[in-house]
Amino acid sequence: MEKIFYTLIVYSENIAGLLNQVTAVFTRRQINIESLNVSASSIAGVHKYTITVWTDEETIQKVVKQIEKKIDVIQAHYFTDDEIFLQETALYKLSTPELQANPNVSKIIRRYNARIVEVNTVYSIVEKTGMTEEIISLYKELQTAGCVLQYVRSGRIAITKSCVERVSEFMSDREEKYRQAKLDMR
Amino acid sequence: MKEVITGAEALMRSLENEGVKTLFGYPGGSIMPVFDALYDHRDKLNHILVRHEQGAAHAAQGFARVSGEVGVCLVTSGPGATNTITGIADAMIDSTPIVVIAGQVGTQFLGSDAFQEVDLVGVTQPISKWSYQIRRAEDVAWAVSRAFYIARSGRPGPVVLDFAKNAQVDKVEYEPATVDFIRSYVPVPETDEEAISEAVRLIDAAQRPLVLVGQGVELGNARSELLSFVEKADIPCGCTLLGLSAMPSAHPLNKGMLGMHGNLGPNVKTNECDVLIAVGMRFDDRVTGRLDTYARQAKIIHLDIDPAEINKNVKVDVAILGNCKETLAKLTSRIHAAQHTMWIKSFGEYEQIEYDNVISKELFPGEGPLRMGEVARAVSDATGEEAILVTDVGQNQLLSARYFRYKHPRSIVTSGGLGTMGFAMPAGIGATFGRPDRTVCAFMGDGGLQMNLQELGTIMEQQAPLKMILLNNNYLGNVRQWQAMFFNRRYSFTPMMNPDYMQIAAAYGIPSCRVMTREELKEGIARMLSTSGPFLLEACVIEEGNVLPMTPPGSSVNEMLLEC
Ligand SMILES: Cc1ncc(C[n+]2csc(CCOP(=O)(O)OP(=O)(O)O)c2C)c(N)n1
Ligand SMILES: [Mg+2]
Fold it and tell me: How many CA atoms lie within 13 A of B512 on its CB side?
């Protein structure tokens, strides 16, 4: 089956140890996680994981269901790139003397819409937010210019194109049904 | 004013609150405050002291499987806790509700490699439905209630509570808790009415339908719903190993066992049916054989409570999520009554072939050494098919499961998914506590019996009325059979020297007898069943017997060998 780049968004309760449980689902199926980001979500107490992997559709469906099966996972969904807005951030540490000696470097930085966030006599730090490809290609150009001391790229973060987080609907729906069931029992 | 009590005492009250009456356990350093509290609750909480914590876990499983209640074990930290791991993994893969409560070092020592500290939550997370560390006495009531709710609801499974010592001794204003809702957890998914309609269309149009009955029917207490369904639609059924007692063996629509060593009819017919209706089963590889040829001709309808089982191994055409007790009833009310007389009759040909080539040789060999199948059938007959079968793993398991007969629900307890040798004796002990009103027969091999042999001590002390049947072939028979079939008869470490089991039983004061012939067998069974309390019956059986028929690994479900 054809391998596709998927972004999984997982919502969970904020419970220590859950990250292990989520990543274990991938490990068991021998799927490499390309990137992983964990943060708070717009719902109080709910954490959001953004995970990217290369795999086929059949596998991703199984993985999502196995993640959702974990007691403290609220919901899990998978997306292809056209269904989400996504960003990554990278930091590049450059040697300040090299940067000054080679006028081309500043041009590259400007061309990529990257920002210089720190300058001192030894090094300068450039920040770039964007898509994976731009970030990598900026790195390659800076590397060719021979001035990169360090480089780091963040995991992908993503937001779906629909308005609300699906998970809030899901949870209010569940709580409403539970209340209703309790009332029915009386 | 609320009462102020210790966390350990709060655990006792929380257990009583959940209706627990029996627990299986073993004390140790970091669970001592709990055992101390237990001392004052002995009138309400019957604690069974096992001889090894693996025994406690399997006993809790046996208890749960026959009673439908949650089995509980109570063990110490470190080695006590790790000794339960096999039982937890077994309960996970076979969907058995147990709660394992283990001591843990005090929170101030966590992470410091303290004496008998093991990261139990970390170790058990992948093999449990939920595992949680209780760090504060205030959390006891909530955590226990949540544990039981998770263990027993939806698709049942094992839950681990890792109970830090400071939380056992600290004081708390106790207030009972009842958890019956977890916002992130949907125990029973909603049923899609459109799926029901689609299934009804397929079933009504089917000419050659086949139902696969799994343990889900037992777990959902859905026997009568299953029977109404298959009787109205007149559909023949095959049962998985764990689903064998979900419908009576004597039911005319019960066509026997599925899988690698199941019956020929339902296996062959899996690849001939036009609609396959799987109820509460998970298409395990031991059931399906080669996947790419499995039921390719059929439209497949899958009824399950666990969405993650849908399309996991076999791609299905219609998925009906929900509790099968409800979904089967929905189907029954909407389908038309039908008759599939010719189709059902066509199983007869395969039943005859299997009878002539396999069953008659196993049940009526005429002369020569005893065979496992005839022993199992003789015991089953002598109990009027009323007994609960508990099995170990290996040839003894497959042959006793095949030749035992089942009348009542929850009458087979076997380690299916994990195949845990050493399961039967402790699970059998648990079963005698779960259903003291029923006869419990545990069939074991000479290998498996010795894997939890120490539990004879528990049986002795409790006078647990377990009827143990040792099918002694002086081999690790199942492995030997595979060596004979696939490894050129190179019997690498499968012959085994055995002790004198009569002396072992005698040492524990357990009545026993050894039988070699058919006459002795009959007498031995009669003695066993008329003896109150435990009994060990050793049947010396054919050494190089084989379990047949067999779908060899990698073969299609309908390609069963009748001899080897
Ligand atoms: C704990 C464990 N270890 C090893 C095995 C592999 N195994 C499966 S069946 C079997 C042989 C069992 O021998 P015995 O208990 O004498 O039963 P028999 O097959 O002879 O009836 C073995 C070793 C297992 N299933 N479980
Ligand atoms: Mg043996």
Answer: 21
Domains and CATH numbers, chain A: 4-79 (3.30.70.260), 87-153 (3.30.70.1150)
A143 alpha carbon – ligand 1 mean position (Å): 60
**For ligand 1, atom 12, which residue shows the shortest CA distance?**
B476
Domain ranges of chain B: 4-173, 193-347, 369-540
Per-residue pLDDT, averaged over B222-251, amounts to 98
* Whole-model pTM over 0.90: yes
In a mutational test of the pocket of ligand 1, which residue from B90, B393, B542 has the highest number of ligand atoms less than 8 Å from its CB?
B393
Determine, for residues A69 and B306 on separate chains, whether the beta-carbon distance falls below 8 Å: yes
Q: Report DSSP letters for B51-97, one per residue.
A: SSHHHHHHHHHHHHHHHSSPEEEEE-STHHHHTTHHHHHHHHHTT--
Distances (CA, A) of B322 to B307, B325, B557: 9, 8, 28
pLDDT in tens, chain A (186 residues): 899 999 999 999 998 889 999 999 999 999 999 999 999 998 889 999 999 999 999 999 999 999 999 999 999 999 999 999 999 999 999 999 999 999 999 999 999 999 999 999 999 999 999 999 999 999 999 999 999 999 999 989 999 887 777 788 888 889 999 999 889 887
pLDDT > 70? residue B1: no
| B67 contact partners, CB below 8 Å, separation of at least 6 | B410, B434, B435
Strand intervals (E) in B268-374: 275-279, 299-304, 318-321
Query: Phi-psi bin for B235: left (phi > 0), alpha (psi -120 to 50), beta?
Result: beta
Nearest atom in ligand 1 to the alpha carbon of residue B473 is: 20
B312: contact with A, CB 8 A cutoff: yes
Q: B521: Cβ below 6 Å to ligand 1?
A: no
- Which among B188, B242, B253 is positioned nearest to B215, based on CA atoms? B242
Alpha carbon B406 to chain centroid, angstroms:
15
Domains B4-173 and B193-347 share a fold: yes
CA distance B9 to B16: 11
Distance B423 CA to ligand 1 centre (A): 11
Q: Is the CB of B443 under 6 A from ligand 1?
A: no
Chain A residue nearest residue B157, CA to CA: A71
The answer to whether the CB atoms of B122 and A20 lie below 8 A apart is: yes
The token duo for A88 is 């990554």
DSSP sequence for B154-197:
SS--EEEEEEEHHHHHSEEE---------TT--SSPPP-HHHHH
- pLDDT tens-digit profile of B14-46? 999 999 999 999 999 999 999 999 999 999 999
With cut-offs at 50, 70 and 90, classify the pLDDT of residue B196.
very high
User: What would the 3-class secondary structure string for A153-174 be?
Assistant: ECCCEEEECCCCCHHHHHHHHH
Amino acid B105: pLDDT: 97
Asked whether B396 lines ligand 1 (CB < 6 A), one says yes
Instruction: From B401, B362, B404, B360, select the one nearest B379 (Cα to Cα).
Output: B404
The CATH code of the domain at B4-173 is: 3.40.50.970
Distance B480 CA to ligand 2 centre (A): 9
Q: Does ligand 1 have an atom closer than 6 angstroms to the CB of B477?
A: yes
Out of 3.30.2310.20, 3.40.50.20, 3.40.50.970, 1.20.1250.20, the CATH code matching B369-540 is 3.40.50.970
Q: Which CATH code is given to the segment(s) B193-347? A: 3.40.50.1220
ipTM of the modeled complex: 0.91
